[in-house]
Specification:
The structure is a homodimer of 207-residue chains. The first copy, chain A, is mainly alpha-helical and 207 residues long. The first copy, chain A, has 10 helices and no strands. Helix content of chain A is 67%, strand content 0%. Chain A is elongated, with a radius of gyration of 20 Å. The A-B interface holds A 35, 37-38, 111, 115, 118, 120-121, 123-124, 129, 132-133, 136, 157-158, 161-162, 164-170, 172-175, 177, 184-188, 192-193, 196, 200-202 and B 34-35, 37-38, 111, 115, 118, 120-121, 123-124, 129, 132-133, 136, 157-158, 161-162, 164-170, 172-175, 177, 184-188, 192-193, 196, 200-202. The structure holds a DNA duplex (33 and 33 nucleotides).
DNA sequence: TGTACATCAGTGAACGCGCGTTCACTGATGTAC
DNA sequence: TGTACATCAGTGAACGCGCGTTCACTGATGTAC
C-alpha cells in the first residue's frame, strides 16, 4: 500500500501542482490504453508517485478525474491543429493539406489519445462537446476560405462535415496497430487516402 | 451464487445448445455495452441462466468467449450487407445506394454491435480480420461493376477503400447517442452525408 | 425386464486480485503573539 | 527572538464489490449385461 517516494511533497500553498501532475499522468495512461475504463484512479496515483487518497484532494471521484483528463487531451489536439489552421494569410489550399497531414499524424502517433477524444460516451458531455465544436469551427472557417477562393457556392458547414467524417474514418480504419509489421490490414495506407481527399471533395484550387 | 433457474438443463447429447445460447447472450451484452471489456463472463452466464462455471465447458476462458461472440456479430453484419450486395443482376448503382443505407442503418440501430466490430484490438486477430475482408471483398466487387458500367478506369480496390473509410467515419461521428434528443451534436444527420457520398466519389451512373 | 455403471451437463463454494472510496491520522510549515 | 497553534499536503489501513478461474461435487440419463 506504500508508494514509491518518487515525488516530493509540495510546499505549502503549492498543492495545485499535484493537480497538474495527476492530469498529465492520466493523459499518458489514456494514451497508452485508449479508453477511460482501463485507466484506474489508483494507476494514475501510482504513476504520479502519490497515494490514491491524495487524488481526492483535487478531484471529486474517478469520473471527474477522467473527464478533466480528456479535456486536457482535447486541448492538445486543438493546439496541434491550431498551429496549422490559424494563419489567415496563408493559401487555404496549402493550409488544408497541412491540416490533413497534422490530423492524420496526431491520430497515427497517438492512437490512444485520438480514440479517447472521439469516444461517444464522452462526447455527450457538454464540456467535451464544446471543445470538439471549437476545433471543428476552425475547419469550417478554412473550408469557407477555400470555397470563396474557388467561387464555389456549396455550404461550408456541410463540406467541412464531409471532410471531418472522412478523415475520422480514414484514421479509424487504416491506422497500424503500433508496430510497423505492415501488410496485415486490407486497406491502403492512410496517407494515400488523405492525399486523395481534397480532389474527391472538390477542394483543390481551380485553374 | 445461485442462479435463477430460467434455463432447463439440456438433455444428454444436446450440451452444445448451451454454447449457442451463451454466444447469443454475449452478443446481446456486447450490443448493450459496446465493448468487450464491459462484458464479463459472469454476466453472460447470468443472462443465459447458468452458473459461471458452466461456461468453461464450452470456452477455454473469457477471451475465447468474447472472440467467438465478436465473430458471431460479424456474421450478422455480413448477412445484412450480403442481402443487399449479392444479386449480380441488379443495377449496381441502385445496389450501392441500398448498401449505404443498410450499412448506416446497422450502425445506427446497433451502435454497440457496430463499435465492437471495428475495435482495433480485435481486428488484429486473424479470424476477425478474415471476416472483415470477406465483407470488404463484396464491396470491391460492387465498385468494380459500377466503374465498368461507367467506363471508369480507377482502381476498384482504392475506390472501395474510400467508400468504406468514409462510411465508417460518418457513422462514427454522426450517430445519435441513443435517444432522439436530437440537435445536440454539431454534425448534419448521417443519412444526408451518406446520400451525398456517391456523387462526391464519382459513383453515379454517367449519362 | 432389472440393475449397475459410465457419462454428461451442469452446480456451489472458495481463491486471490484490483478496484473506488472512506476514515482517522501525521508531520512539516507558515503565522500570531 | 521563541513558542504555540492552525493549516496544508498528504499517508495508510480498511471496507465491500465484481471479477476470472479452480476444485470437488451432484444428479439425471442413457447403455451394457
Amino acid at each position: 500500500m506504500s508508494v514509491t517516494p518518487s515525488r516530493e511533497r509540495s510546499r505549502r500553498g503549492e498543492g495545485d501542482q499535484l493537480r497538474d501532475d495527476l492530469l498529465e499522468a492520466a493523459a499518458d495512461l489514456l494514451a497508452e490504453h485508449g479508453s477511460v475504463e482501463k485507466v484506474s484512479l489508483r494507476a494514475v496515483a501510482t504513476r504520479t508517485g502519490v497515494s490514491p487518497t491524495a487524488v481526492y484532494r483535487h478531484f471529486a471521484n474517478h469520473d471527474e478525474l477522467m473527464i478533466e483528463s480528456v479535456l486536457w487531451c482535447w486541448r492538445e489536439l486543438d493546439a496541434v491543429l491550431g498551429a496549422v489552421l490559424t494563419d489567415p494569410e496563408e493559401d487555404p489550399f496549402e493550409c488544408f493539406r497541412k491540416m490533413g497531414d497534422a490530423y492524420h499524424g496526431f491520430a497515427t502517433e497517438e492512437p490512444g489519445r485520438y480514440k479517447v477524444l472521439f469516444t461517444r460516451d464522452l462526447m455527450v458531455l457538454d464540456q467535451v462537446q464544446e471543445m470538439g465544436l471549437l476545433v471543428f469551427a476552425k475547419l469550417v472557417g478554412l473550408v469557407e476560405r477555400m470555397l470563396a477562393a474557388n467561387g464555389d457556392d456549396r455550404d461550408a458547414f456541410f463540406v467541412a462535415s464531409q471532410v471531418h467524417t472522412w478523415l475520422h474514418g480514414i484514421v479509424g480504419l487504416c491506422n497500424k496497430p503500433g508496430s510497423p509489421e505492415a501488410e496485415a490490414d486490407p486497406f491502403p495506407p492512410g496517407d494515400e487516402l488523405v492525399l486523395a481527399m481534397p480532389a474527391a471533395l472538390g477542394l483543390e484550387p481551380k485553374n
